[in-house]
Specification:
Shape: elongated
Number of helices: 11
Helix content: 25-40%
Mean pLDDT: 95
Number of domains: 2
Bound molecules: coenzyme A
CATH superfamily of the largest domain: Gcn5-related N-acetyltransferase (GNAT)
Radius of gyration: 24 Å
Number of strands: 16
CATH class of the largest domain: Alpha Beta
Order of helices and strands: EEHHHEEEHEHEEHEEHHHEEEHEHEE
């Protein structure tokens, strides 16, 4: 087998793991947090780790990289493509950075980026998959940021200190990886008065404030909208591109002049990337001025004309007249009323579905 390569990034250098890494790898096995986050229960002797490090450089179904920094050779963790199935061009991925002092410095993100580039562009893999425990939001964030999509959940696969934990299965396919590379990061959609952009950290206070107003919350799924939920929403949208199949995105709606947040739009794509559900929440101070219509109209127009969607629908409660009126104003037609189909704030509620098709969408 030809010698395994070294991958160089701006901050980290990934070099093939070899016998010289055995002691550092052995020491990393006493990192309790990493052991839990990777679900490692087995204990290994130094001799076992030495044998492993001596073996992996020549194994043909894996690439084990030590994460190092320029000017030093020290093992700070590892990132691995393993169980490579050459017939199906598929591989597993895993990463662990040793020691809290090395985490959250961007090393994991850059190492992931380098290995994905190597896997998809050099090895020509079609699929890279991984598993991440549901109690590991940091790793989930990093994987999502690089385009991994959740495929499913393996329920209760890990028994850790008396409690069962589930694992999320994620994967990234080569065509999606390459498409992401060539696609510019979403910045904004503009209307005469509004800018639909990514949610930002400084939107936190207004987002929590208007989502908590009783006249806003009464028809939404939440009772109290807390800061933690808002932070999660904002962070989630930093790493997702809108109009990604099987993913949702929350657009911030801001006044063009001041960039002040006045509402947000939900947009959830189906698996095929051809249909989407929309939703909207607006600060009541900015309702009744045609701003919501302006925002949603522009989003739907963009989705049909630029993103090639086929159908867009909204689901609301029949008691929510402003929402129904908005959808009617946009030319959406009622398709169904699902009777007592949603358990909502202590009672069964109806859902009405309005939709518009690309072929009937009028250009405004
Ligand atoms: C998961 C891991 C590889 C990530 O690498 P890292 O170098 O620590 O991460 P980075 O500094 O590159 O990035 C961390 C990102 O997570 C975000 N983050 C941190 N804590 C978070 C949390 N609780 N929820 C959501 N996101 C979080 C950070 O804000 C940062 O986001 P940004 O890049 O968008 O700014 C590393 O922390 C690690 O090895 N952890 C222990 C083992 C492990 O969990 N392995 C994965 C098993 S599946």
């Amino acid at each position: 087998m030809p010698e395994k390569p070294t991958l160089r990034g701006k901050t980290v250098i990934l070099r093939p793991i070899g016998p010289e890494d055995a002691e550092a790898m052995y020491a990393s096995l006493s990192d309790k947090e990493a052991m839990q986050l990777t679900g490692t229960k087995q204990s290994f002797s130094l001799e076992q780790v030495q044998a492993f490090c001596a073996r992996v450089p020549t194994e043909e179904d894996r690439y084990d990289f030590a994460i190092t920094l320029p000017g030093e050779n020290r093992y700070r963790g590892e990132v691995v493509l393993n169980d490579i199935d050459w017939d199906n061009r598929s591989s597993n991925f895993r990463i662990a950075i040793s020691g809290t002092e090395n985490r959250e410095k961007g090393y994991g993100s850059e190492a992931t980026e380098l290995v994905l580039e190597f896997g998809f562009k050099t090895l020509n893999l079609h699929r890279i998959e991984l598993e991440v425990y549901d109690f590991n939001p940091r790793a989930q964030h990093v994987y999502k940021k690089h385009g991994f999509i959740q495929e499913g959940i393996r329920r209760d696969v890990l028994l850790w200190e008396g409690k069962f934990q589930s694992a999320i299965v994620m994967s990234l396919l080569q065509p999606d990886y390459l498409a992401r590379q060539s696609r510019a990061r979403f910045e904004s959609l503009e209307t005469p008065r509004l800018r639909m952009r990514r949610l930002r950290d400084d939107d936190l206070a207004p987002l929590v404030a208007y989502r908590n107003l009783p006249e806003v919350a009464w028809m939404q799924l939440w009772e109290n909208y807390d800061t933690e939920s808002a932070k999660k929403l904002i962070n989630g949208c930093k790493v997702v591109e809108p109009f990604t199949a099987n993913d949702s995105f929350q657009f911030a709606v801001a006044l063009k002049e001041s960039d002040e947040l006045i509402g947000d739009l939900y947009f959830k794509m189906d698996e095929a990337g051809k249909q989407a559900e929309i939703g909207y929440t607006f600060d009541p101070r900015f309702q009744g001025k045609g701003l919501a219509t302006e925002a949603v109209k522009t989003l739907i127009n963009h989705a049909f004309k630029e993103q090639g969607l086929h159908r867009i629908y909204g689901i609301t409660d029949p008691r929510n007249a402003p929402s129904i009126n908005l959808m009617k104003r946009l030319g959406m037609k009622q398709e169904a009323q699902l009777r007592k189909s949603l358990w909502f704030k202590g009672e069964w509620a109806d859902d009405v579905i309005f939709a518009v098709l690309a072929e009937e969408w009028k250009t405004f």
